[in-house]
Amino acid sequence: MRISELSTQAGVPVATIKYYLREKLLPEGERTSPTQASYGVAHVQRLGVIRALVDAGVGIAGVRKVVGVLEEPPANPYDLLGAANAAVTPVVAADIDLSAATALLERMGGDAEKCFPDQVAAVAHALAALDRAGFTVPERVMDAYLVHLSAIAEAELAATPDRSIEDAVRYVVLGTALVEPLILALRRVGEQVAASRRFGPSGG
Amino acid sequence: MRISELSTQAGVPVATIKYYLREKLLPEGERTSPTQASYGVAHVQRLGVIRALVDAGVGIAGVRKVVGVLEEPPANPYDLLGAANAAVTPVVAADIDLSAATALLERMGGDAEKCFPDQVAAVAHALAALDRAGFTVPERVMDAYLVHLSAIAEAELAATPDRSIEDAVRYVVLGTALVEPLILALRRVGEQVAASRRFGPSGG
């Protein structure tokens, strides 16, 4: 198909597609004349991934990393997960006290030294922000986070497709970044459902 | 204390404190002379809340809403939760198909009509972004999200402090917005722990 049809099918303006081509986020189409190229289903899919990441707030540098993982997926599944995670994880300053984060990880059954440093640092940063606000997560609530987020992670991992490496990368990358808004939205709705159950629908 | 000491205690520059005063996010201090005012512990706490929200990516308009809730908390706990949630929830376009989101809510034991529209719309937007990316959450994984996020929400609600309305507002507002980075970070770490358990630490 021509670029105009690709634009229609993917719902992405032609100028934006050209920008992605220049940035090498999207592979070149097959040249059919000096001024025209032909695009296929793979381009539509790739545009879907790019737009979804951009919509989820991932910057161009992050999109570039995801595209890199999609184009050259690592062979070991654990490294694959790490590369995919890293691609969509903002780099945070690592000069932070990791002890509280490390202790939480141990309670999840993990080992901070075997985890990717950015992920442990992200936990430490989240804890530090709560501290700065003078907010303490009640112990029973923290227990609930550790138990139920571990269970979610196990379910996600168990469902990783093993048909092809492309499928697995796609699942991990998109599942990590794009599912986050869903998880947060479901938690907030869940809080309302719980509140409505406890306090009745509305006062006024 | 003077503004300079407030600045030191709260770790916020004097110029920023003056900006918050002008924006009425921070109440005026007690005048001690035409050019000086005295600040107390309440100012330190309020600055902690403001900085934490700003650090968590909440804009000034959102901070203003949270401050409004803190200063005039609604009487009904359910409305309180809604106001607090709304204060830290970005407004999303509501012209979106809510049917899939409504169905998920029912599976959580909730009723979309009793939930705040922005929250239901947020679920719908998250689902639409996944759709656009061509990503389907496997059914068993979606089940895990619904079950475990409901359990997290119940635990959070059960721990809402009832000593004072200020405590409850503070808990709900900060607990909603500030805990999100922790939840996302713990999920990602949880995925690594699960992957390491399944595939061994690293290949290379």
From TrEMBL, chains A, B:
Taxonomic superkingdom: Bacteria
Signal peptide: none
GO molecular function: DNA binding; DNA-binding transcription factor activity
Protein's name according to its UniProt entry: DNA-binding transcriptional MerR regulator
Statement: the UniProt record of this protein carries the keyword DNA-binding: yes
Record has Glycoprotein as a keyword: no
InterPro entries: DNA-bd_dom_put_sf, MerR-type_HTH_dom, MerR_fam
Keywords annotated in UniProt: DNA-binding
